[in-house]
C-alpha cells in the first residue's frame, strides 16, 4: 500500500492551492471551487451562489443535475456500466437510431470527446480518399482560428499556432484558409484535398457565424474535387443554435458531422455521423475506442436528444436567444467604451470588447464572477455567453443586471 495515502483520502480538505500542488498546470482555473449545481445555479465551497452562463463551455445544456438525466443514469448504473467493443448494448443502438433518424446520417460512431470525434472524421476522410482515389489525395483544409481538439492531429488542423508551439513536427498535408473568405477557399481546395473541415459557427475563434455563401462554396468545391465536407458541430450542435444541428439552419448538408459537448450534458461522449457509403471505409479493426458507446454515456445522450429535439424546446431556445441579444445590444449601446455589437447564433453568443479594451475580456469576466455571474471568453477580446438552453427570462434579466454592475465596476478600474 502506498504510504503517502491515508484512510481519509476521499474526504480530505482541498482548496484552489491544491490544484497548483498536484495537477499538471494545463489550466488556470478560477479561485473559487464549485461544489454543487442545480439548473443554472451553482454554489462554491463557501456557499456563495452564482448564475452559470457557461454551462461548462456549452456542455450542460439541460442544466446541472437535470432530474431526467439523473434518473436515467441511476437506472443504468444499476444495470450495466461497461462491456467493451466485443459486444454491443441496447442504449448505444437506441442512440444510434435516434441520431440517424434525426439527421442526414445513416451511420454513427461513438467515442468520448469532440477531439476523438474529429480524429475519427479526419481518419475516415483520409481512408475514404485513399481507397477511392489513391494516396495522393490526402490534404486536409481547415480554417485559421478554428478549434477541433487537442490531439496532435486535431490541434494541427485547428489553425491556432499558440496550441501547436513546442509540439513539432506536426502532421503534414494540412493547410489553412481564412474563415468566411471565398477566394481563400477557392485557392486552397484542389483535387488532392481529402477533406475540408469547418465549424458552421466558430466558437473558440471568437463566436463568428459562417457566411452562408462561404459554406455553400465549401460544399460546391468539395463536390467538384471529391473531397469530403466535415462540419464540426461539437460546440454548435444539440440545440445550441436553435436547431438540433446548425447545418439544418444554414441548409447545407455535410458528408460527416461531429458532435460532443452537450450530447452528454457533462457525461463524456462524442459522435461522428456520416452516410452509408462513406462509413463502409472504416471496416472492422480500422478504428475504435475502449469506452466509446458505453451504456452509461449513451443512456444519458439518448435522454438529452429526446428532451432537446422537440419543436417547442427548440422554439424556446430561439426566443431566449432573441431576449439575450436584445439585452446585449442595449448593453453595448449603453457602454460603447467597453463593448461592441454582439454576434453569434442561438445561445452561443459573443460580446466583443471595444477596441480600447482589446485583450481584456478575461478581466471583465472576473469582475462579473465576483458579482455572481459565470461567463466565458472566446479568445482575449470576446466575452462568450453559453447558458443552459433551459435558461428562463428571469435568469436572462438577472444576468443583464449583473453584467451592467460589472461594467460599472470595470469602468471604475
From TrEMBL:
<keyword id="KW-0028">Amino-acid biosynthesis</keyword>
<dbReference type="InterPro" id="IPR015424">
    <property type="entry name" value="PyrdxlP-dep_Trfase"/>
</dbReference>
<dbReference type="InterPro" id="IPR050103">
    <property type="entry name" value="Class-III_PLP-dep_AT"/>
</dbReference>
<keyword id="KW-0808">Transferase</keyword>
<feature type="modified residue" description="N6-(pyridoxal phosphate)lysine">
    <location>
        <position position="261"/>
    </location>
</feature>
<dbReference type="InterPro" id="IPR004636">
    <property type="entry name" value="AcOrn/SuccOrn_fam"/>
</dbReference>
<feature type="binding site">
    <location>
        <begin position="232"/>
        <end position="235"/>
    </location>
    <ligand>
        <name>pyridoxal 5'-phosphate</name>
    </ligand>
</feature>
<dbReference type="InterPro" id="IPR005814">
    <property type="entry name" value="Aminotrans_3"/>
</dbReference>
<dbReference type="GO" id="GO:0006526">
    <property type="term" value="P:L-arginine biosynthetic process"/>
</dbReference>
<comment type="pathway">
    <text>Amine and polyamine biosynthesis; ectoine biosynthesis; L-ectoine from L-aspartate 4-semialdehyde: step 1/3.</text>
</comment>
<keyword id="KW-0055">Arginine biosynthesis</keyword>
<keyword id="KW-0032">Aminotransferase</keyword>
<feature type="binding site">
    <location>
        <position position="289"/>
    </location>
    <ligand>
        <name>N(2)-acetyl-L-ornithine</name>
    </ligand>
</feature>
<dbReference type="GO" id="GO:0042802">
    <property type="term" value="F:identical protein binding"/>
</dbReference>
<dbReference type="InterPro" id="IPR049704">
    <property type="entry name" value="Aminotrans_3_PPA_site"/>
</dbReference>
<feature type="binding site">
    <location>
        <position position="150"/>
    </location>
    <ligand>
        <name>N(2)-acetyl-L-ornithine</name>
    </ligand>
</feature>
<protein>
    <recommendedName>
        <fullName>Acetylornithine aminotransferase</fullName>
        <ecNumber>2.6.1.11</ecNumber>
    </recommendedName>
</protein>
<comment type="pathway">
    <text>Amino-acid biosynthesis; L-arginine biosynthesis; N(2)-acetyl-L-ornithine from L-glutamate: step 4/4.</text>
</comment>
<dbReference type="GO" id="GO:0005737">
    <property type="term" value="C:cytoplasm"/>
</dbReference>
<dbReference type="GO" id="GO:0045303">
    <property type="term" value="F:diaminobutyrate-2-oxoglutarate transaminase activity"/>
</dbReference>
<keyword id="KW-0963">Cytoplasm</keyword>
<dbReference type="GO" id="GO:0030170">
    <property type="term" value="F:pyridoxal phosphate binding"/>
</dbReference>
<dbReference type="GO" id="GO:0003992">
    <property type="term" value="F:N2-acetyl-L-ornithine:2-oxoglutarate 5-aminotransferase activity"/>
</dbReference>
<feature type="binding site">
    <location>
        <position position="147"/>
    </location>
    <ligand>
        <name>pyridoxal 5'-phosphate</name>
    </ligand>
</feature>
<feature type="binding site">
    <location>
        <position position="290"/>
    </location>
    <ligand>
        <name>pyridoxal 5'-phosphate</name>
    </ligand>
</feature>
<comment type="similarity">
    <text>Belongs to the class-III pyridoxal-phosphate-dependent aminotransferase family. ArgD subfamily.</text>
</comment>
<dbReference type="InterPro" id="IPR015421">
    <property type="entry name" value="PyrdxlP-dep_Trfase_major"/>
</dbReference>
<dbReference type="InterPro" id="IPR015422">
    <property type="entry name" value="PyrdxlP-dep_Trfase_small"/>
</dbReference>
<keyword id="KW-0663">Pyridoxal phosphate</keyword>
<feature type="binding site">
    <location>
        <begin position="114"/>
        <end position="115"/>
    </location>
    <ligand>
        <name>pyridoxal 5'-phosphate</name>
    </ligand>
</feature>
<dbReference type="Pfam" id="PF00202">
    <property type="entry name" value="Aminotran_3"/>
</dbReference>
<comment type="subunit">
    <text>Homodimer.</text>
</comment>
